[in-house]
Structures are given as structure tokens and as C-alpha cells.
Amino acid sequence: MNTMIQFLDTQPAWHWWALGAILLALEIASTTQYLLWPGIAALITGALKFLVPSLDGRLAIFLFALISVVATVLWKRSSLGKAERHTHKHLNDRSAQYVGRVVKAEDNFVNGRGPVRVDDTRWSAHVVDGSAPIKGDMLEVAGADGAELKVRIAPGSLMLGGAAA
């Protein structure tokens, strides 16, 4: 036991700084914020050990643990430590992400159903406004029903013989 206490008492400040650097590097790699404050606490403990070289090793470990816990708790309870957790409401609902977009009819609609192109993907669609779009008409996505889009004639589109002008 005395050997361990003597080992702790003889640790130089740079050992604490190295521990702090390792913890902060791991924090950067993990981005979890679990190692941020222990890393900073190790740097502070190293600074204390540098300023007071006779600092007892057991006291240095106690200060490291105390600073780590207190700083982490204060950070997590502060408004700065509370992460904004806003996610996109349609993150896992791909078809609902297209609501409001203007798309192009890929072919003539038959019985209110037909294909539309959204970006580089061809989707099945059905009209909700009773129109009969033909190939090239610009349509607005009004909603989604599973893998089928609900479309209507896009506002501002002029229909001349069924085609958008």
C-alpha cells in the first residue's frame, strides 16, 4: 500500500495533462460528452500539481474525481448542456417528405392514377382534385398514402388541353 501511495505522490503534472489529452481525444472521437469534463478535470488537476508540486497523490485523485463529477452535473443541468433534440418530423417517412413539392407527370393519368417523377425516382400517384393530368403536367404533392403520392394540379400551372403551359 505504501508503494502505491508513494507512486501517486511522485506523479508529475504532465501525467495529468497526458491523461486529460487522452480523455479529450477520446471525447472528440466519440462525441458523447461523457469524457469532456473528466478530461478538463485532469488538465486542472495537472495545473494544480504543477503549481503545488508537493500535492498529495490521493488528494489529486480526489480533486480529479470531485471536479469531474461537479462539472459534469453542473453542465448537464445548465441550459448550455441541454442539447436541442429537434428531429425532422418525417425523417423515416420518405413519401411524406415530398408534401408541397412540385413534380412532373411522367405519363397520362388513367382513372386518376399515374406515374410522377420526384428527383430521380418514379412514384405512383393519384389525383385528389378530380383532374386528369397528362404527360408533362406539373403537379403538387398534397399528401402520401404509403408508397403512393396524392397529387393535384400545381398552383400557377395553366392547363391547355390537359398539359401544363
3D architecture notes:
There is one protein chain. By secondary structure, the protein is an alpha+beta fold. It has 2 domains: 76 residues, no CATH class; 61 residues, Nucleic acid-binding proteins (OB fold (Dihydrolipoamide Acetyltransferase, E2P)). Helices cover 38% and strands 21% of the residues. A 5-stranded mixed barrel has the order 1-2-3-5-4. Strands 6-7 form a two-stranded antiparallel sheet. The longest helix is centred in the middle third of the chain and has 21 residues. The termini are far apart.
Key terms for this structure?
165 residues; alpha+beta; OB fold (Dihydrolipoamide Acetyltransferase, E2P); 2 domains; 4 helices; 7 strands; rod-shaped
